[in-house]
Specification:
Order of helices and strands: HHHHHHHHHHHHEEHH
Shape: globular
Helix content: over 70%
Strand content: under 5%
Radius of gyration: 24 Å
Strand order of the largest sheet: 1-2
Number of strands: 2
Number of helices: 14
Distance between the termini: 104 Å
Length: 356
């Protein structure tokens, strides 16, 4: 039963759910494209790898801030759900963090490594990106299945892990289409076509499985009085998938050289899929077991954290907007000043004492 929303114990959990949802959505879209670019690294040559890293260099730190905020809100505002979810997802969470750490280390060290060693850091960047993407997709699949541990839930989670990885590839390739030129841009168009197929499969799988999760969710989606309001969601999503395919085909035929459509439409698909998932599961954090009000911390504690969140959230939004505005346009190769650093002058030889 929903509590009185006019009181703090009623509206504060809703406010924190909104902040957590916004953080997760922004993380998936923004960090999703640089994870996708990391996954595409093995199919590029050495010069293209540097261009790909330059396309995400100014943004990737800011993108991961949203993951920190989202997990922080979950642990502070919904401690009961945080414990239950981490218990069910301990291994994939550990693998995701391992992948993020590995790609972070590889990102910074690849440019400082000797040329004959750089390929090892490129592989580490790829492996870390792939591991993080697969872990995130697996966690999404387990959430849709209510964190069940049977073989069907595990198989579905593995399928969604693969499809989310493909969707990240679509996002990453779409970003490269915007930020790069010439041969690398042409490759990005081909990569996006492959990612498009996996993203479509994943969307269809989640759309089919979510109503089967419970009779309550099924009733929400297929009640006749709600169909006029819900029908635009899958219809618009289908249009966005068609638009991506059409634009990619035009670019492959040379009819369009520049287009923001693949990335923008892919981001729109993520937003619509997220909206559908929220509609299906609200107000549950653990479907059928724990809702946001049952999992919430004490109102007094939430109020203190809420004030801090109101101060921090605009700063993160402002910094992210500033970074994307400053570094708009085609990506230039990152220059760390290593090759042009002046050599230290040799110290003058000590003067010999005059012989007498």
């Amino acid at each position: 039963m929903m509590p009185n929303l006019a009181t703090p114990d009623g509206w504060l959990p809703l406010a924190f759910l909104a902040v957590m949802g916004l953080s997760i959505l922004l993380y998936v879209v923004l960090d999703g494209f640089d994870l996708g670019i990391g996954i595409l690294m093995p199919w590029a040559n050495a010069e293209e790898k540097d261009q790909m890293v330059a396309a995400i260099g100014p943004f990737w730190d800011a993108n991961e801030t949203w993951l920190v905020l989202g997990i922080g809100v979950l642990s502070v505002a919904f401690p009961a759900a945080h414990g239950e979810i981490l218990r069910a997802l301990y291994l994939p969470t550990a693998l995701m963090l391992t992948g993020l750490i590995l790609r972070g280390v590889a990102f910074d060290l690849r440019v400082k490594a000797a040329l004959h060693q750089r390929h090892w850091w490129n592989r580490a960047f790829f492996f870390g990106s792939l591991l993080a993407a697969l872990a995130q997709g697996y966690m999404l699949g387990m959430m849709v299945m209510g964190y069940a541990s049977d073989i069907k839930a595990q198989a579905f989670a593995v399928l969604i892990a693969i499809c989310v990885t493909a969707a990240y590839v679509l996002l990453g390739a779409g970003w490269l289409i915007i930020k790069t030129q010439a041969d690398l841009q042409a490759k990005a168009v081909r990569w996006a076509a492959y990612g498009w197929k996996g993203a479509l499969l994943g969307f269809m799988a989640i759309s089919a499985a979510t109503p089967l999760l419970s009779a309550e969710i099924q009733a929400r989606w297929f009640a006749l009085e709600r169909l006029p309001w819900l029908a635009p969601l899958p219809l618009i999503t289908g249009v966005l998938f068609w638009l991506i395919q059409r634009r990619l085909g035009q670019m492959q035929r040379g009819e369009r050289r520049e287009s923001r459509t693949p990335f923008a439409a892919s981001a729109g698909i993520f937003v619509l899929a997220f909206a559908g998932l929220v509609y299906s599961l609200f107000p549950w954090l653990i479907p059928g077991k724990l809702d946001i009000w049952q999992a919430a911390a004490a109102p007094e504690s939430l109020m203190i954290v809420f004030i801090g969140t109101c101060l921090v959230l605009p700063v993160i939004l402002g910094y992210s907007f500033f970074a994307y505005r400053i570094f708009r346009g085609k990506a230039a190769l990152l220059d760390y000043g290593i090759e042009r650093a002046p050599l230290l002058e040799a110290a003058p030889a000590p003067r010999q004492a005059d012989e007498h």
